[in-house]
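Lab meeting prep.
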Amino acid sequence: MVDAAKMTQALKLDVLVPSPTGLLNIETSDINRPGLPFAGYWEHFAHERPQILGLVEASYIASLEPETRRARLEKFVSYEIPCIIICRHLGGLDDLIALAASRGIPVYRSEDDTTRVVVELIYFLNNQLAPQTTMHGVLVEVYGVGVLLTGESGVGKSEAALELVKRGHRLVADDVVNIRKVSENRVVGEAPEAIRHLMEIRGIGIINVATMFGIGSVLSSRTVNIVVHLEHWVEGKNYDRLGLETPTTDILGVSVPWLLLPIRPGRNVAVVLEVASRNLVLRQQGYSAAQEMENRMKAQISRAAEEAERMAAAAGQINEQ
């Protein structure tokens, strides 16, 4: 189901026939342009999709004989159609609108051309119908990288995010992050409407980041590029010190880079998160400092081995003499 009000607002549609329930029975982001059904070919009519009428469909309907036109339109609205969108602010479809109203089919009109409406509608539906989940954490954008901070309550996620905002980065969500899978390899996080731009700081309470630091300090949504799990430093625990491997975590079936960051007094978490974000970008571009160090070590060992072989060969020649 799709919220009709959200769709009309997102696509800037005029409501000609409202949805009786406020919801649209749409389960796919695919759309349909019913040119062939209007021509009389009803086989494989994708009636379960939103029906988009452009100049081609409208002009063809207008060219039909009145009796044929009426019959085609009556059969068209006899199907369970989720909604009809008329593009280019086209007129001359009053009989279709009346028939749709009698069947309770929502009808909308857009001033935009058909291609633009199709693109925007598919984008909107992809977001609305995407698989979703909710995670406890803080989502911030650091140097263009979406960083999702996780960890137990009180570990310092919000404080780290607040320091990042002070350093010029942007907050997306604090405490609760709604995450949607928008493609096979991309998940996007955003804040619930009720707590958008708000942050809880223990000892102070709720603050509005947008009001306090300016609208440029917040974002409505951001791709989750890396998950950083914060935990209190455990003495004796073997933390990764090289970074040769890149662990990942699964979010809605998408593999996302994962980093464990131990926290202890005096450690500047915000700076470390900035470094982690820049390092991720470098890795995505094919550069790894850890791999470079390993290559240097291998090259040094190889040179030492070659030098040892040369010295052994020279010593053998001396002994022969």
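Slide two material, second protein:
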Amino acid sequence: MRYLRPLALTLVIGLLAACAPQGTFEVGMVTDLGPINDRSFNETTWNGLVRAQEELPVAADYRTSIDETDHAPNIEAFLEQETDMIVTVGFLLGDTTLAYARENPDVQFAIVDFAYDVAIPENLLSITFQTDEAAFLAGYLAAGMTQTGTVGTFGGLNIPTVTIFMDGFTAGVTYYNETHNTDVDVIGEDIFAGSFTSREAGQTIGADLIAQGADIIMPVAGETGLGAAEAAGNNPGTLIIGVDSDWCETSPEVCPVVLTSVMKRLDVAVYDAVEDAQDGGFDTQTYVGDLTNGGVDLAPFYTYEDDIPAELLSELEQLRLSISVEAIAIEDYLER
């Protein structure tokens, strides 16, 4: 997959959106907290819109949310521009997106990473991911690769779209322990940086987990997690598992310490959502990306492919199949 650097495209995208040819389907994206080029959540979503702009008669633009007070004004700005579709990103935008979708039935809305427990209008698509499935594989892999017997994880904010990664990772370690009669420990499950953008916080937390013995860490914290990768780079023998995107693609400078990444294919889901909306509307109000449909997955192992025992690789493939056919229920391995 080709990942494009959004900042290099910002001026071009903005000009195209501002002077889109008549009849072009116009899409606006409201970011999660943080910049468009966060090398994670926002950027992967934006890549889906960049692809839509390249392959479909679509003009895309975005508005950045620095804090939660930006969410409503950003949506309203796109409504004032008579944008055809608005894509919002992240758990914190759930209620606001629903409210505006109800008030504007002629505008298509899609929200990334939020599942509703109430009825939603036909002009709103909820895009969700079973990231715990791929994170389960990552936890199993980490447990099979650790040299210290301790692995770690931490989050940016204590919200469901973060903790689902952490829970899946821990469940995978638990399953490995039960299968192999080992006692790999997971630390950091109750640690949250309070930010998705502070590399300094991520480096501090990463260094603390390393000091406690963790030699493989999965930070679920956006750009904050890149700080943990820097900490790993300062401690030879420590590895990182990335999240959301393939970190060796989006952040190649940290690839030397990246064992793999737990990927959410937000770009693919958003592209498909735009294509459906452009063709007249959504076939369903909920999209769930999982291992079966490729919505979530592990990234390649790159540098460490030859270091992973063949038996462990075989077990991972069997696990993938077992999860896909529901022979293994991840929730059965939580909180044991």
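Talking points for slide two:
The chain has two domains: 6-129+266-289, 131-263+301-333.
DSSP finds eleven helices and twelve strands in the chain.
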